[in-house]
Known about the structure:
By secondary structure, the chain is an alpha/beta fold. The protein has 2 domains: 121 residues, Orthogonal Bundle (Cytochrome Bc1 Complex, Chain D, domain 2); 76 residues, CATH 2.40.50. 29% of the residues lie in helices and 16% in strands. It is built from 7 helices and 7 strands. The termini are far apart. 20% of the residues are buried.
Amino acid sequence: MTFQHAFAALAALCAPAVALAAGDAARGAHGFRACAACHSLVAGEHRTGPTLASVFGRRAGTAEGFRRYSDAVRQSAVVWNEKSLDAWLRDPASFIPGNAMAYQGLPDARARGDLIAYLRAVSEGKLAAPKAPGLPDLKAVDAGQRVSAIRHCGDTYRVTLGDGGVHAFWEFNLRFKTDSSPRGPRQGEPVIVGAGMGGDRAQVVFAVPEEFSAFIRNECP
């Protein structure tokens, strides 16, 4: 084999790897939909996981305002770039042992490359960050979702709403949550949100946890 033939063969072997490493941001945008339940690409908007806005060049465990990092991630010296993100997405448990991310990994190398290309494009402002789905503005709900009182008796909660309606829930089916984000309820104005299962389950969302005792009274009719 001549030197020219050997060089051409080597180039043919290397070319797919280079193309794969570059990734396709458009395909990555579709792939990110699976990540959007836990991560936003809007700066400062944290969900189950931290925002991935400006993730490139950021040290792991340092997204401002995110307080749920595991010790393993906070104490790591990882800086996010193509190589580290590829290793993380392939197998998070092996890359940073002891981390709390409930994700088994993405074995498809091309899919990882596409996703990383998309994250980089958004980080660098080449693509706009998508709006996070499924986060309603709890300050803008109507009276039928605003909670005026909650009574507890035996195994039952009775929730009185701003439109005068009263709804009874088995205590195990009513959850109490807080949302301190800009889209959360105003202080003193908790909101009830359905939780599926045929309307027999719901969640009451408060602005701060101190409001729980102000609204929940032990009182039987």
